[in-house]
Amino acid sequence: MAKRFKNAVGRGAEAKARGVFRFAALACVAGAGWATCALASPVEVTYWEKWTRFEGEAMKAVVDDFNRSQDKIFVRYVTMSNIVQKTLIATAGGDPPDLAGLEDANMVSFADKNALTELDGYLKDAGISPKIFIPVLLSRCTYRGKVWAVPTTPATTALHWNKTMFRRAGLDPESPPRTIAELDQMAEKLVIRDKSGKILQMGFLPPEPGWWNWAWPCFFGGRLWDGKDKITCDEPACIEAYKWVQSYARRYGAGPVQIFQSGFGNFASPQNAFLAGRVAMVIQGVWMYNFIKEYSPEMQWGAAPFPVKYSKQYGISHAEADVLAIPRGARHPKEAFEFMKYVIAQGPMEKLCIGQRKFSPLMKVSKAFYAMNPHPALRLFADVARNPLTFGFPQLTFWEEFLDEMNFAFQKIWMLEVTPEQAMADVKRKMQKRLDRELRRLRRLGLEQ
Description:
Elements: H1 11-24, E1 28-30, E2 33-35, E3 43-49, H2 53-69, E4 73-79, H3 83-92, E5 99-103, H4 107-112, H5 120-125, H6 135-139, E6 142-143, E7 146-147, E8 150-162, H7 163-168, H8 180-189, E9 192-193, E10 199-201, H9 236-252, H10 254-261, E11 281-285, H11 288-295, E12 301-304, E13 319-325, H12 333-343, H13 346-356, H14 369-372, H15 378-385, H16 399-414, H17 420-444
Parallel strand pairs: 3-4, 3-5
Antiparallel strand pairs: 1-2, 5-13, 6-7, 8-11, 8-12, 8-13, 9-10
Helix pairs in contact: 2-13, 9-10, 16-17
């Protein structure tokens, strides 16, 4: 199956490299006879990756550096869409790539399907301690006590705010909210309506952008799962979080807010609600800088940890990461790991992260790293990643189902169709049954928690 996917980028360099080896393999004259001076061809490692544009170019530069650094392994870098589905299909068919660039959200399902190669032995033999990685990012690559991938370019979330809009509302543009109460107070001051009462500008909206509807309880000290055998989305902190979400719909009207939201454009466009100056504060990831730079370069903005219910929690975030994995059945796992080992070394990793404007997943970085990276708020995103309370997706094999249920419940809460207690009770009932079924399956396989 891998033969169907050709890498247009870098094909010329690949052909040139192969030509050199073919030329060097020609016979040469030695004394009165012929002696063979053939050089062994390099092992070709196929690497599938999802990145395009500057992100893809950043990894391509690292691949090129590796290929130039030695002559035993040649990494063929292939950018493709729908990489999760294609990697699973290729692995099931016995013809996977040697390396795949996936996301942390894929790790549990891939590992559970026996679609990945365990890396603990490789790391140990190479003398690489897992402790070189920021703990929360390593946890995204670990399932049932085993490491199945390594983090590459990570991301955390933070509050982004428009300083110009703050200034116009009489707020200090250099003092973002630290608590949920402060967020609510500032958001109220940032609301603008026309004479008819139509909303023209909002300070903050819990459904915007709607990518982390499940995560609001974490900023109130709650959690969705106890990590063992109980779904906990109905615990008091979770209910409090969704009552807070619903308070915005009650205060400003679910209908009027929905009309206001209908005017938002695509995320990656100048009509993005935050980029267009229609919403003054938003929760977004480290990547937001790239979109500000492209679509609203004149914006005066800041980033800070997202507000929390209790001040002692200030500085927590949601963390995720792109990861590099070796699919089960890869033809050249040892050579694939050699490239993986190269990527997670400090120099190449920093080059990759600078190219993508992200922080490094490594605990240690060079003194020049932040100076060389153009992202002005990068240290913040790196700092919140190191917070022990920072969290990721619950590592459940049925997380996609859980996420769908949480999003459905969120919409009903937001539209004032149900109370948070009713919505979370319904989610718990369904997901507890699903968890119980999953635990029974794991017990049959001898894989208890």
